[in-house]
Amino acid sequence: MVSRHLPHEYFFLNGSQSDGPVIGHIDGRPIPARIIDTRGSRYRFVGLARRDQRGRLDVSALRRNEWLVAPDLIYAAVA
Description:
Blueprint: E1 17-18, E2 22-26, E3 29-32, E4 34-36, E5 42-48, E6 66-69, E7 73-77
Antiparallel strand pairs: 1-4, 2-3, 4-5, 5-7, 6-7
């Protein structure tokens, strides 16, 4: 279920940089295996975000410590 109460913008990591090999492509853009955010925290690729029939991101499907990176990629924090 897509949350109408949680703006999806709250779940995006902005300013992240690639850190690791490219493991695939989506819409011609590379999918890095790992990324680093602006504070130096590290994340690993775990999948693609779902969208509802209207094209809205399903942020309620994210697990604890998972974040979105455009285009609809999900990354999980590395402990």
